[in-house]
Amino acid sequence: MKFKALLPLLALTFCTVAESEAQNEYAEIVRLNRMNQRVTGIRSMNDGEHYTVLSDNRIVRYKYAEQTDGEQLLAPSSEISITDYTFSPDESRILIASGYEPIYRHSYTTRYYLTEGKETREILPRAVRPRDASFSPDGQKIAYSDRNDLYVYDVTTQATHRITTDGEWNSVINGTTDWVYEEEFGLTKAYAFSPDGQKIAYLRFDESRVPMMEMMRYDNKLYNKAFSFKYPKAGDDNSLIELWVSDTEGKNKVRIDLGKESDQYIPRLGFTPDGLLWYHRINRRQNTFELVLCKENGAQQVIYEERTQQYVERVDDNTVTFIDGNRFLVRQESFSGYMHLYLYGIRNGRICQVTQGDWEVTDVVGVTPKRVWFLSTETSPLKRNLYSVRLDGKDKQRLTTGEGFYQIAPSRGMKYYISTFSSATTPNCVEICDGEGNKIRTLVDNSELKREIEEKQLPTKKFFTFTTERGDCLNAYIVRPRDFDPSKRYPVLLTQYSGPGSQTVRDRWSLDWEDALVEKGYVVVAVDGRGTGFRGEQFKKQTYGRLGALEVEDQLSFARHMAKQEWVDADRIGIYGWSYGGFMATSCALKGHGLFKMAIAVAPVTSWRYYDTIYTEIYNNLPQVNAAGYDDNSPINFARMLDDSRTRLLLLHGTADDNVHFQNTMEMARALNRAGKRYDMMVYPDQNHSMMPNDTSNVRQKMIDYTLKNL
């Protein structure tokens, strides 16, 4: 009897020791990640021969072609903490953002300083919460937003001109964007100067009809308080958008006619090199995209149009690139089924297809009048390499030689570029190359980290393909413990995201909390199911209109495949995901019929009716049209299917998540409660979608501990 009584205590002791060791392992992962150095804040100078970096709160200028000690452009100051910086067009001034008060994912308010020669002074004296400041093309003015209005500051006279006067929180926004534009179009600066600096075009958002979302804030105060903001959920009203052009003193304004349709998106605006205003126009359904040019006589011309049955991939800064007064590049997938580049003329339409093949252009790095430099998946969907090709589609050259993942910071005119390369087995290597791909020198090689990796024999990803019972071939990876023995049986954790156009399986260096589990004898695997990106339009758009159907099938199929391996303990398979991945982990736990012993869902979407218009409707159509697409795969409608005798489910969420609202987890809890199901939950007060500002480490340690106890 005494021996039996000691068993629970021994088990608890063992688990506590294991958790303590795991904490040490995660701390080691954090340390190794910090060792993985890179070069940040890179800006090319106008001459294309020099560049600057932001290092230790200093802006330092270097030569591309020669190794030098660098020239410090800004004297160190305890008063200024550099968040970002921008040169004036003639590079005689530097606009510095100092400090960071976050609003949402991309937006923040800050203090601005201006450096001229050796003098640095704080500017924008009338601003209370300035943001999104930038120079005019002549460098004489700085536009910025403050409390939903747009202003222009004259650098010479130090006078401030108010362009708009009707800005109001949760009502009208001028010159910056509402929540959903920021989150889904990656856009906060919603204005543009004309090339001569005499005009400024800007968007006006009327969000008065957008439903209000209230997010409770606790903030260690005696009385909690709701934070209210406008958030359009699928099928509800969006902001009404207007496009205006004003002089830089705000005296003469003209509203631009955006067409008959009012329920639409205007996600980008700007001016051509010749000074003509252009804007992007997308219908609410997001299956029609138009590039509209405003002529001097007031007439408008659609110079590019794309229509698809399902959706046009969301536009970004790489969708359209103007080359000169007539030519522009378009990156799109509808014509060939793969994301490629096409050359167009304003006056003569489509000129030629610049790139082609069963691979995708992922990024436009640089353009000159004769050539374009781009990153693509030509060698593999898992890799990125840099190529150059003439604008007529001829003389394509591969410039990078590594087998892995490249990111590129180009110089002006593409004389040089700075590449950051990594692979599943190699941390960052930062090099300077000339425009033809010839290496000049190495800036960062992370030799110390490489040495530690070799000494520790750190397990790395091994890539493979997996074929489902339905015959779909999917990309996957596996990470095994360093002492892996195929005669033993191991617990397995599936990690995934699975959202439309996303990619988890890629040949790039990364370490996260799952790697702490590998150190404790777990196998970690991932698979990119149908609907994920970089394998062509057809593969990606299979999931259209029924989010969570095919993706869940593929994860379940992958779990069954892993369970059949002789070295896998089939009774110890778990799944994890965050955001869309949390939606997937929850769905797999409910529909897995006990296949998973454990599921961890962080900030999960539990009904697409709770998520925003732009993201949800582009992939699922409007709920008024496709109700089944919202309900047939919603986890809250399948709570009764959780086999809680075999599957432990952990829900984690931050109460201040402005993206995937805490509502999702609360309604999932309600459904599970009503179904009489047992589950676990961890709540993070006042933390956002990334569990910031305080709990990014805490949530990962919680997941490590939970896995050790339950898998």
Keywords:
disordered N terminus; eight-stranded mixed sheet; about 700 residues
Structural overview:
- By secondary structure, this protein is an alpha+beta fold.
- 18% of the residues lie in helices and 36% in strands.
- The radius of gyration is 27 Å and the shape is globular.
- Mean pLDDT is 94; it is low at 1-22.
The number of strands is 44
- Secondary-structure class: alpha+beta
Strand order of the largest sheet: 37-38-40-39-41-42-43-44
N-end to C-end Cα span: 28 Å
Percent range for helical residues? 10-25%
General form: globular
Strand content: 35-45%
Radius of gyration: 27 Å
The helix tally amounts to 11
Integer average pLDDT: 94
Largest sheet: 8 strands, mixed
Q: Runs with pLDDT <50, length 5+? A: 1-22
Would you summarize the structure shown here?
The chain has 711 residues and is α+β, with helices and mostly antiparallel strands. It is 18% helix and 36% strand.
Give the topology, please.
Elements: H1 2-35, E1 43-44, E2 50-55, E3 58-63, E4 71-72, E5 82-87, E6 93-102, E7 108-116, E8 119-122, E9 130-135, E10 141-146, E11 149-154, E12 160-162, E13 172-174, H2 179-185, E14 191-193, E15 199-206, E16 212-217, E17 225-230, E18 240-247, E19 253-256, E20 264-265, E21 269-271, E22 277-283, E23 288-294, E24 300-307, E25 320-322, E26 327-332, E27 340-345, E28 349-353, E29 361-367, E30 371-376, E31 385-390, E32 397-398, E33 405-410, E34 416-423, E35 426-434, E36 439-444, H3 447-456, E37 462-467, E38 473-479, E39 490-495, H4 513-519, E40 523-528, H5 537-540, H6 550-563, E41 568-578, H7 580-591, E42 598-602, H8 613-620, H9 627-631, E43 648-654, H10 663-674, E44 680-684, H11 696-710
Parallel strand pairs: 39-40, 39-41, 41-42, 42-43, 43-44
Antiparallel strand pairs: 1-2, 2-3, 3-4, 5-6, 6-7, 7-8, 9-10, 10-11, 11-12, 13-15, 14-15, 15-18, 16-17, 18-19, 20-22, 21-22, 22-23, 23-24, 25-26, 26-27, 27-28, 29-30, 30-31, 31-32, 33-34, 34-35, 35-36, 37-38, 38-40
